Fold this protein.
Amino acid sequence: MANQIPLVDYLALGDHPHLTALECASCGARYFDRRNACAGCSGTEFASVVVQNDGIVKAFSIVTFAAPGVPVPFVSAIIDCGGTSVRGNVINCEPSPEVITLGMPVRLATYVLGTDDNGVEAIGFGFEPAN
Amino acid sequence: MSDDIWILGITMTKFGKHPDKDTIDLAAEAAMGALRDGGVTMKDMGLLAAGCLMQSNAGIGQQLQKQIGQTGIPVYNVANACATGATALRTAIMAVKSGEIDMGLAVGVEKLAGAGLLGGGGQPKSDKKEWSPSGRYGAVASTDGRIGAAAMPAVFAQVGMEYGHKYGGTSFELFARIAEKNHAHSTLNPLAAYTKRMTLEEIMNDVMIAYPNTRSMCSANCDGAAAAVVVSGAKLKTLSLEQQRRAIKVKASVLTSDPYEEGCQVLPNVNTLTKNAARIAYEQAGVGPQDLDLVELHDCFATAELVHYDNLGLCEEGGAADFFMSGATWRDGSTPVNVSGGLESKGHPIAATGIANIWEVCHHLRGEAGDRQIEGAKVGLAHVIGLGSACGVHILEKSGL
């Protein structure tokens, strides 16, 4: 496990992979990258928090045409993880409108994206159907 | 009122492919057209505001001056995503309103034919031999396609789907029917890039880009330009009766950006800033949505048009699907929307769009829209949104003369 690196630094690996966010101490707004001041309330204190792994699909698009180098099809989605909106792909299911529906319960899942010349695995994340 | 603001002259070029014209040729055609339409020349202009999003560091305004007239006036080169044209116009309006000048010219131009997919890909980042975190998110590989989509068709697909999740009533077919309407409307617009009527089946069976948006539900990348001459009420009074009769009153000119809300940095929120702009515009104009004879709104994708019915207050909150299905937004409905064909068929040369939609409204208010004239049109609204985000709303009224 030591030879793994997350696709992005807000993905925490380990026995229980999860996403982290910086939360504004004043208003609770959450960000996946750094802020000098909160876009919502101008507060300047932030703390790292764990984003819950379970959520529901509140918007999605099945992408069949993308920029060169982006493999298609994939399912782009916005997941409501207990009040925190998260962008991620819906994975581990058929990318079809018969399978993926608005309001569908999903949970965070990780996968190996590739291995580099040093034997380090890059770990990506998505959301898979919870049922 | 002497502090009123008016559109004195306005025009748009044909939208589509212009392989024989460069950006400056198109901008000059539109600018000269607007000056001619207003019965004025560059010598009368106190300011030039110009936008060309894809060449936003090229000094498009100064290049245009060299083509049509270098009079030494201040030039503002503006860039504000898909709201660039509206921002250029509003720059001229603000200058006239301030009293600093009594006439200004705004121009938007874009060469976009064959540009393909916009917004996707991000920084090219090949999956290399050694993972190396970089950028704000410490990403070791490209995130487009791995952490959702960056390209516009999918972003706006999600905007429409989010509306469906919140209020219900949406479906692939419903979104496709919106495109069916706009393609039908475009058959009456000789300046539209595409003027072919398409059946619902043709639209739904077209190449899928990002479900639920097929190709014919996406805005058409094309070349085009539009320009407008803005004049103060006091100056207008000194011009001919014919100029005064054809002048269109700017009842409201509003530009907003997106205020923070949960999730707005994950999926752009195109709703709240549009609602805010509409609310301010209706207050400024002293009219309500029920007073609008026509609306040109930013249908960059069929999924976007739906949410803006609601955002502009054309229907009850949450009622956009029912409102559309009632037929209200067809050209013979109670609130005709995008009788030009909209961005889906008229086309979307980005910086030109925010002036071209105002031209469309003015064209009807002047009673000059020919076969597609909305009879008796007196008040209209034009809306654009640029992702990031910027929203422009203008409310226009026919002259009382």
